[in-house]
Design a protein that fits this description.
The chain has 21 helices and 13 strands. The protein is of the alpha/beta class. Helix 13 (about 340-355) links the parallel strand 10 (about 330-335) and strand 11. This is Arginine--tRNA ligase.
């Protein structure tokens, strides 16, 4: 075990059991980083009343039984200040350097489904899809790294009544023109043109309604046209995913159309078992605890009064399929915070139906909005949603401009600009809590200082330059690590927390905490680099030790950024 906080927590728990009995062995030691020591354990304060003793007495009893690789000091009314020995830190950092997992635990494998991105096929991907895509991809990467079987699900909006008018519009303008328009990402223009005709041309509207019937019946010619439409749309989505550098592929597409054949059975099953009932002509589930403004039970509508299906129907079918067919142990729905009530009612209804059993976790990873500098929803000056691909391309070009003074050829500058631009956008998104709003600001995102993606990318590039100048291979650097300077100590202590942070991100869906850890790591390395000469160290032993700390920092930063989906260029 390399994580200092976990080592100290277990030591305090053993001391609690020895001092007060085995029933206290599982007590939370309440260990926190401290400005007076490496960590502070506050458990004596919380236990004092239960034990009928003063906090300082409790702290003294714990200290008397405490066996940790370091020292303990009681301060104030009963705080335990814990300081690890330099030798222990150096030895653990050396072990981390030789560990291919860098101290990240390999957890017992579970099947984890991550539902993310999910654009509507009939519309352009806009900045609102950025967060669901970026956060979902980071969570999928983290779960895989922890050893789980991850099933990515891109739940496209690819079915329903709008496709009647979309297919008829395709026939009107011709297949070739429609494919060209959709492949170019002009989905919004295409949709709006079809909508105008539907609203103003009765003959077109009648054809569109008839086409919906043939689509639902899966008429072969209608299905051919639908596949043509979807193929062109997906090709455009893939351009966005490639530009953004996410791991979604066509194999991960599981759109609404996939569940079409299951919807009638879902309704029949729920009605036959009395879980869903007819209310005002519609088939509804009334999960307990959900009420409207006047205290009336709130319906979760499974089938509309006209016999049509909605999101609730598809989502119930999806839930049952993922649990029963995919054997999910955990499901992460990376969806906008505005869908919170819908998701709560979905989970409650699925539990009533037995389709979400107790041993399966279903979690709504709520995604906050992206705002402009005016604090409102991020849009163009004309008030339209900003196309995601155009936003990404602008980020890339701005990054290239920031790096314009670097002495690179055009191809290298473009390659670095792409990595830095996408890294800046993704990191800005991931570094704030996923359920929070944030302001989209290119100038702040692309800054080479502060808590930004480019700063972390630059930190890794700077470490690589040390090895290039000294003609050392970071992969072959072994140490041993020695600790003599406070900056060496602080860096080693920081690096040893990597495994616990990754495990925490996996458990709590909090990629912003990994961002904070990586920023603190880069900052600790900067202090180390400024105070501890590496290539010009006073002795060969110090040089090899500091090279090993630099190599470990490089690996932790690179691995951490990869888990966030951020590419690290060799040079900047």
């Amino acid at each position: 075990m390399t994580d200092p906080q976990l080592v100290l927590a277990e030591g305090v728990q053993r001391a609690l059991a020895a001092a007060f009995g085995q029933e206290y062995a599982a007590e939370d030691p309440l260990i926190r980083p401290s400005q007076f020591a490496d960590y502070q354990a506050n458990v004596a304060m919380s236990l004092a009343r239960r034990l009928g003793r003063s906090p300082r007495e409790v702290a003294q009893a714990i200290a008397a039984h405490l066996d940790i690789p370091g020292t303990v000091e009681i301060s104030g009314p009963g705080f335990l200040n814990l300081t690890l020995s330099d030798g222990w830190l150096a030895e653990r950092a050396g072990e981390q350097l030789t560990d291919e997992r860098l101290g990240v635990p390999a957890e017992a494998q579970k099947t984890v489904i991550v539902d993310y991105s999910a654009p509507n096929a009939a519309k352009e991907m806009h900045v609102g899809h950025l967060r669901t895509t970026v956060v979902g991809d980071a969570l999928a990467r983290v779960q895989e790294h922890l050893g789980h079987r991850v099933i990515r699900q891109n739940h496209l909006g690819d079915w329903g009544t709008p496709f009647g008018m979309l297919i008829e519009h395709l026939l009107d303008i011709g297949e070739e023109a429609a494919v060209a328009q959709l492949s170019a990402g002009a989905g919004n223009d295409y949709y709006q043109a079809a909508r105008v005709k539907f609203d103003t041309d009765p003959a077109f509207a009648e054809r569109a309604r008839a086409r919906v019937v043939t689509l639902q019946a899966e008429d072969p010619e209608t299905m051919r046209l639908w596949h043509l439409f979807m193929g062109a749309t997906i090709r455009y989505f893939n351009k966005v995913y490639t530009q953004l550098g996410v791991t979604l592929t066509d194999d991960d597409i599981a759109g609404e159309s996939m569940y079409n054949s299951m919807l009638a059975q879902v309704c029949d099953d729920l009605q036959e078992r009395g879980i869903a009932v007819i209310s005002d002509g519609a088939l509804c589930v009334f999960p307990p605890g959900f009420t409207g403004r006047e205290g009336q039970p709130l319906p979760f509508m499974i089938r509309k009064s006209d016999g049509g299906y909605g999101y609730a129907t598809t989502d119930m079918a999806t839930m049952r399929y993922r649990v029963q067919d995919l054997k999910a142990d955990r499901m992460l729905y990376v969806i906008g915070a505005t869908q919170s009530l819908h998701m709560q009612m979905l989970f409650a209804s699925a539990q009533m139906a037995g389709w979400l059993p107790e041993h399966v976790q279903a979690e709504h990873v709520q995604i906050g909005s992206v705002l402009g500098s005016d604090g409102k929803m991020f849009k163009t000056r004309a008030g339209k949603s900003i196309k995601l691909l155009e936003l990404l391309e602008e980020g890339e070009s701005r990054a290239a401009a920031v790096l314009a003074d670097r002495d690179y050829d055009a191809a290298t500058r473009a390659e670095i600009g792409q990595a830095v631009g996408m890294g800046a956008i993704k990191y800005a998104d991931l570094s704030v809590s996923h359920d929070s709003e944030y302001v989209f600001d290119f100038d702040r995102m692309l800054a080479l200082t502060g808590n930004t993606g480019p700063y972390l990318q630059y930190a890794t590039a700077r470490i690589r330059s040390i090895f290039r100048r000294g003609e050392y291979d970071p992969a072959a650097t072994q140490g041993p690590i020695r600790i003599g300077h406070p900056a060496e100590r602080a860096l080693a202590l920081q690096l040893l927390g990597f495994g616990a942070v990754v495990a925490e991100v996996g458990a709590e869906n909090t990629p912003h905490r990994l961002c904070a850890f990586l920023f603190d790591t880069a900052s600790a390395f900067t202090t180390f680099y400024e105070n501890c000469p590496v290539l010009k160290a006073d002795s060969e032993e110090d040089r090899q030790s500091r090279l090993a700390l630099a190599a470990l920092t490089l690996r932790v930063l690179t691995q951490g950024l990869d888990l966030l989906g951020i590419e690290v260029p060799e040079r900047m």
